[in-house]
């Protein structure tokens, strides 16, 4: 068999060969420039025309430095001179910016690059007649430079990310090792790994051998054989409460109460659990101290209450006797003694009556927190109806001097104590107002969490410096001869407001009256709600 032969192009003369080579050079995808011994350009292909904007006719016969004056002192002109004089080839890389020609980049690179990034190869040529020429091969390497920049940027970002990751790992490791809590991680197969020194101390080879079993028992069921339930003295709290406390035994035999918190995460298609053990020894000591203090306070309060009741009961008996005989002397010897004796008898009777009222008020104050009734819904409209009826029966003030302005809500509390609170405020408003024109106005305001009940009067008012002290026991702003009272009424009001989880404040201006504000919560705090049951 004969081998197939390739088609042969028959070039008949030198002119055809020259045209063929000229076309090849013009259609090349690189820039081709030939420079003669006189430094003049003798070839300038179409690639150079399109990238420089200089036509072939404009370039032939001119020097490269004439077309591009900025290259006159650059690396390229020196390389051309060395090539023509000494036959030295050269390669000018994109990093040598002074050797670059001012060629236009492709449109897709114009926004990033001012000029084309290029690699220029300078090579000597010797013709058949012995003429020495210099050829320039210009390649567009803008895309490669762009890729290199992106790679360098990505490498820098990756290096920074690695640095940050290492820094984060070091910081995390330092935090884990220096935290006071013991931190462990467990997989769903029950394997437990201590992550820090405190965890190693508690659960490691020299730690509590039973603690790891307790932790496995506390983990969710992973379809493995469940560990044995710990003894009751090792689980300090009920598992149903959500807060788990266990007792660990250290190497030196010291028992340490621990609070256990468990969370989970998923990795590698498996569940893993993070177990945090916190030493709560100090908190337990504080709780015991608080319980001991509360017990002592409870006992002290009980003893004080018994003492107050006994003292007041024992005081009332001789006080009644003194009052009775003083009043008997006043009736029997009235107008039979001189005026001085009558005045002394009057003072004695008045003093015993005031002491009687003070003892009664002290008993009321001491019983606010200890003998209160359970809390129920209390309509304030009905409450102020009862207060107005009480004042009408007592004949205090003209009719209509207690005014209700707008809606009065229903609050939660001890009805009898709330009656006493608002009755004291209304009584004070009438007492410190003009008997004929005195008026007490009741109105309310609602917030998101509470009701505010205002009791406003048009009386004599209170100086600003006394707005806080008037709620203290025995704090009177006037003498007994000016206004009646024991100085305990507002202290009782404050204690009742405190028992209901509320507050009482006053705003006043001398000569323009006073406005007391009792703020009662819509939802009672848990402690108060339990005490009121």
UniProtKB/TrEMBL annotation:
Transmembrane region(s): none
Class in the EC hierarchy, top level: transferase
EC number(s) stated in the UniProt entry for this protein: 2.7.13.3
Every PAS domain range: 168-204
MF annotations from Gene Ontology: phosphorelay sensor kinase activity
GO terms (BP aspect): regulation of DNA-templated transcription
Entry keyword set: Kinase, Phosphoprotein, Transferase
One Pfam family per UniProt: PAS
Reaction(s) the record says it catalyses: ATP + protein L-histidine = ADP + protein N-phospho-L-histidine
Highest taxon listed in the record's lineage: Bacteria
NCBIfam families reported for this sequence: sensory_box
Protein name as catalogued: histidine kinase
Species for this entry: Thalassospira xianhensis MCCC 1A02616
Upper classification of the organism: Bacteria, Pseudomonadati, Pseudomonadota, Alphaproteobacteria, Rhodospirillales
């Amino acid at each position: 068999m004969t081998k197939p032969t390739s088609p042969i192009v028959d070039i008949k003369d030198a002119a055809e060969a020259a045209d063929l080579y000229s076309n090849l050079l013009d259609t090349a995808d690189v820039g081709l420039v030939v420079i003669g011994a006189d430094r003049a350009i003798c070839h300038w292909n179409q690639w150079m025309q399109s990238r420089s904007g200089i036509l072939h006719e404009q370039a032939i016969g001119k020097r490269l430095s004439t077309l591009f004056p900025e290259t006159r002192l650059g690396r390229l002109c020196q390389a051309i001179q060395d090539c023509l004089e000494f036959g030295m080839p050269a390669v000018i890389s994109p990093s040598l910016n002074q050797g670059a020609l001012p060629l236009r980049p492709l449109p897709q690179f114009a926004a990033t690059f001012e000029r084309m990034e290029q690699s220029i190869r300078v090579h000597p040529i010797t013709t058949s007649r012995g003429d020495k020429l210099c050829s320039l091969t210009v390649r567009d390497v803008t895309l490669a430079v762009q890729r290199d920049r992106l790679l360098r940027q990505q490498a820098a970002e990756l290096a920074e990310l690695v640095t940050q990751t290492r820094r984060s790992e070091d910081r995390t490791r330092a935090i884990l090792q220096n935290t006071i809590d013991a931190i462990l991680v467990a997989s769903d197969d029950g394997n437990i790994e201590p992550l820090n020194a405190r965890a190693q101390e508690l659960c490691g080879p020299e730690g509590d051998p039973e603690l790891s079993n307790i932790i496995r028992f506390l983990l969710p069921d992973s379809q493995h054989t469940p560990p044995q339930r710990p003894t009751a003295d090792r689980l300090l709290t009920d598992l149903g409460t959500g807060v788990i406390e266990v007792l660990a035994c250290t190497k030196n035999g010291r028992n340490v109460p621990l609070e256990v918190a468990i969370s989970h995460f998923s990795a590698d298609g498996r569940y893993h659990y993070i177990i945090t053990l916190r030493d709560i020894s100090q908190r337990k000591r504080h709780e015991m101290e608080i319980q001991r203090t509360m017990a002592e306070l409870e006992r002290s309060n009980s003893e004080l209450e018994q003492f107050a009741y006994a003292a007041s009961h024992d005081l009332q008996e001789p006080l009644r006797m003194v009052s009775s005989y003083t009043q008997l002397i006043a009736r029997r010897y009235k107008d039979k003694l001189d005026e001085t004796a009558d005045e002394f008898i009057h003072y004695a009777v008045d003093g015993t009556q005031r002491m009687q009222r003070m003892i009664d008020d002290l008993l009321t104050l001491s019983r606010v927190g200890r003998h209160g009734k359970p809390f129920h819904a209390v309509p304030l409209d009905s409450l102020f109806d009862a207060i107005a009826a009480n004042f009408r029966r007592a004949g205090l003030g003209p009719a209509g001097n207690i005014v209700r302005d707008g809606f009065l809500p229903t609050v939660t509390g001890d009805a009898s104590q709330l009656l006493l609170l608002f009755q004291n405020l209304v009584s004070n408003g009438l007492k410190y107002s003009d008997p004929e024109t005195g008026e007490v106005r009741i109105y309310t305001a609602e917030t998101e969490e509470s009701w505010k009940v205002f009791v406003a009067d048009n009386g004599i008012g209170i100086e600003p410096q006394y707005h806080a002290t008037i709620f203290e026991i025995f704090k009177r702003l006037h003498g007994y001869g000016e206004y009646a009272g024991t100085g305990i009424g507002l202290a009782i009001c404050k204690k009742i407001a405190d028992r209901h989880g509320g507050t009482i404040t006053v705003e006043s201006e001398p000569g323009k009256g006073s406005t007391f504000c009792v703020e009662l919560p819509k939802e009672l705090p848990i402690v108060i709600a339990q005490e009121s049951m």
